[in-house]
């Protein structure tokens, strides 16, 4: 699977976990130079508190376009150390 935004591959892995139709990529598959921590946090009743990354590619930013659960609740333990995408990031198996 690949996560692509603004013409660049953000993450690529054959080992994603699908939860609620979102592919969660291993954190180590992300291109670290394209992501930056965000101060945004949200809460999911069954997964826990989510943190976000902002993507920056070729001078363009996509705020909070990736999220992860640093300490997921037990029901979502399979997504620990994994990152999912939205806000125009295309996730494809090509």
From TrEMBL:
Spans traversing the lipid bilayer: none
Domain spans labelled DUF427: 1-87
Matches recorded under InterPro entries: DUF427, DUF427_sf
Pfam families the record matches: NTP_transf_9
Protein's UniProt name: DUF427 domain-containing protein
Source taxonomy: Bacteria, Pseudomonadati, Bacteroidota, Cytophagia, Cytophagales
